[in-house]
Structure formats: structure tokens, C-alpha cells
Design a protein that fits this description.
about 130 residues; mainly alpha; about 10% strand; globular; DUF222 domain-containing protein
Length: about 130
């Protein structure tokens, strides 16, 4: 299960649209590592106007990798994180996520990060089963 959904949020979903802030809070509570990682990277990016992107290059635990996978594999969770932190997310694998400025999909830095070459160069035997 990706999210621990509170009864009031489930009730919202059953009768209509879900409140964005409530959904974002559920993501933060359910996937704290992924949420904190995106929040930290977004703060780093927004603190330096010259910076094109910020990324993590750490080896998270299995549980942390699972959170990143669940957060970034879901369009709704990923979109919520992007809106909340005003970033464009890019994901190479279970241990490397990057934040770009909104609209960066047309940038050279984004194209390089999301290229097949970058994907191949970012492989490591220790992450083969992530």
C-alpha cells in the first residue's frame, strides 16, 4: 500500500474531489522519506537561481527506496509533490531523484539527466534489485 489514508480523506474521495492540501499531507505522512527528499532538493534548487537542478546521490535503505518508488511511480503523488514544491521531478532509479525548475523538460540539463546514456552510467550492481 502506498498511502495511509485517513477516513475523512477516503470519505472526500467517495463523494467527489479530494482537497489538495489533505492529499499532500497524506503523502507527507505516508511517505516521509520521499517527501523530505523532494522538499530538501527543492529548497536547495530554489536557494540558488543559477542552479539548473538538484539531485540526491545517496544509497537509501530498502524501505526508503520503496518510498521513492511508490511516490514517483504514481502520477497523482508525483504531481502533488511537483505542485507543492514548484518543481519538475526526474527519476533515474530507486536511489536517484532530481528536481528541476518547472518547464525544464525543454532544457539541456533535463534531457541529459533523463537520457538513456545517463541511465546507463547511473547503474550499480548494488542497486540491481531495487
Amino acid at each position: 500500500m502506498s498511502l495511509d489514508v485517513a477516513p475523512h480523506l477516503l470519505k472526500q474521495a467517495e463523494v467527489g474531489e479530494v482537497n489538495e492540501a489533505d492529499f499532500a499531507g497524506t503523502v507527507a505522512a505516508s511517505l516521509p522519506y520521499a517527501h523530505t527528499m523532494v522538499e530538501k532538493l527543492a529548497a536547495e534548487l530554489h536557494a540558488d537561481p543559477a542552479k539548473q537542478f538538484a539531485d540526491n546521490q545517496i544509497a537509501p535503505t530498502d524501505a526508503e527506496r520503496g518510498q521513492l518508488l511508490r511516490a514517483l511511480a504514481s502520477d497523482s503523488i508525483r504531481g502533488s509533490l511537483e505542485r507543492r514544491f514548484a518543481v519538475k521531478l526526474a527519476f533515474q532509479n530507486c536511489h536517484r531523484v532530481a528536481v528541476f525548475r518547472p518547464g525544464a523538460a525543454d532544457s539541456e540539463a533535463y534531457r541529459r539527466f533523463t537520457s538513456e546514456r545517463a541511465q546507463i552510467l547511473n547503474q550499480s550492481p548494488e542497486f540491481r534489485d531495487c
